[in-house]
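Hello again,

I reread your note about wanting to compare the complex against the isolated chains. To keep things tidy I'm splitting this into two emails, and this first one only covers the full assembly. Below are the input lines as submitted, including protein chains and any nucleic acid or small-molecule components. They are followed by the predicted structure of everything together. The single-chain runs will come separately.
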Amino acid sequence: MRLLKTSIVAATLALTAGSALAQGIDDPTREPYYSSFQGKRVAYVPVAMGFDLTEGWAIGLKEALEPLGVTFDIRDPNWSTDAGAQAITSLIAEKPDVIVVHNPDVQSYARLLKKAEEAGIYVVQVNMRSSYSTDAFIGADYVGMGEQIGERLVEKCSPANGGSGKVAITQGVLTAAASVYQMQGIDNVLSKHPEIQLVSNQAADWDATKAKNIAATVIQQHPDLCAITGFWDVMDVGTAAAIKESGKDVYLLTQGGGNKMACDGLNNGTYSEVVVYFVPGQARDMATMIKQMLQLKQAPGTTKTTLFTPLTFLTKENMTPSSCWSLPGQN
Amino acid sequence: MQIFGRLSQEQIVFGLAMLLCLAFAAALPGFLTTNNLLNLVRSVSILGILGVAMGLVVIGRGIDLSLVALMAVSVAWTLHLVAGGMPLLQALAIGLAFSLVTGAISGWLVAYVEIPAIFATLAMGTLIYGFGRYFLFGLDVVYMPEAAQALLWYGQGTLFGIPVPIYMFAGVCLGAYLFLRYAKSGRYLRAVGDNLLAARITGIPARPIIVLQYVLSALIGYTAGIVTAASVASMNTRVAISTYVYDVILVVVLGGIGLSGGKGGIRNVIVGTLLIGVLLNGMTIMDIQYTVQSVIKGIILLTAIVIDTILNPRDEQTAQQGDI
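Full-complex prediction:
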């Protein structure tokens, strides 16, 4: 009898619990979450489409935002600062909710970005920052990165560690944030290490052919060159070709967004080491910031958030199959 | 002044290059070594090859502003096709065919539609770049796929201790020289450039010759593109919208091929290329800052042109026709 009673109670409990489960509880944050994105518009102004970083960010943002009903527009100025400034000016008139900007240099867009915020548009800057800080910056801490690279150079090339002490730098465009801040960082370290001699510090305009010619001449002049650090892996394909042709053992420390091409380069010996700011991670950070801003609905320009992307120093030894990412269709 | 008066621009520029060479040799240890000199020529050999292409067109009283864009797009497309699994030779043939056909279209616009060369090729350059980026391949920098590694030799190999790009430059120069000197169409080309109307009256097929200029320029441009792609294992299509094509024109004009056509030869291109090479190499060795390099480059080029203007004043013909 007791057993029967217990099982009836148990059955009733189970039934009620079951019906409660079937009914479910509505998550009170869902409705405001989804409705805060409905009909919003995000515009993206990179320095140019068509290369790993900007394509990777675009894909990441698209995947994160479009399913929520956000319209995602790309304005591609194709390496022209004028066209970029024009795109931002016309965007200010069109009033999207968010503009994502990738600055070609620290000055050009500064005033426009301020105007955009004043017009009530959130401005997110990615990877290369303008001298004007906006709602959010997502990207590498270039000064810190420069310092880390400087230390790496000292470690590799200091005569105390058996190196010749001679290093060379290949920058991109002298006025790009990636160059100016990074040089600051490298200088911070090298100024404390007089044993390291900077034999060449040139800009190659992000172009592989120029980088190759510079590297070839520098290696020619300094056959005992210990290391070259370049500011972009796509450009340093040229630096690597010059090193390979010279037949010398020069340590090539480059940097980039961690596209599959960087891992391939490490694998086949094109690069010795790559400093990676992981692009899909940056895209996710941007999407998160945008989601937060659209939900908080504060006036643009009231808060300034900086999210520095964690850096990985990849070498052939420490890289794994998941260290790099690929674009759709990239084999 | 009288003795100097007989110097041509080519000789002036050659003298200037030698003077710079001597100065660098005295001031920079390691400038005058075999390896550095080889490196110097190698670094400008692509510029030189393009200079030959531009030179041929300019001698024919035209100008080809689409040269660099066509080179970048046709070679990038070739690499893209190989990466997609097409056999290398087939991809090369398709890329070359694309290049030649596009060159012929430019030539047709200039010769038959009679659009001034500067506008026709300016528009074609923009069109080619846009078309390539939109329809042929998506990325800005196209990498050399594994299947195309055989090409690397043309950009990175050496033969008897001399880098292959130098041979390519020499070969293109020799070919163009023989063409201008001995081929019937080569002589026609110079005649058309010197005086189009007179050439036509004498029965030279002027229009086909003009089309030929642009096809040749496309062909040599494609060669230069293959060497470029091979030397850095990738093709950067951004050069199409850079100022690179003006560097090429500079080499040609600096060497002494007048923009009014009919004058000059391949030697002028070589001399112009060497001066630029010596300058770039010396400044890189001295580790001069990039922006300062532009200033120095500009001043030296202007000096060469000013000396030429003083020593060789403009004649009646240039005054009438204008330079471009």
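For quick reference: The radius of gyration of chain A is 25 Å.

B.
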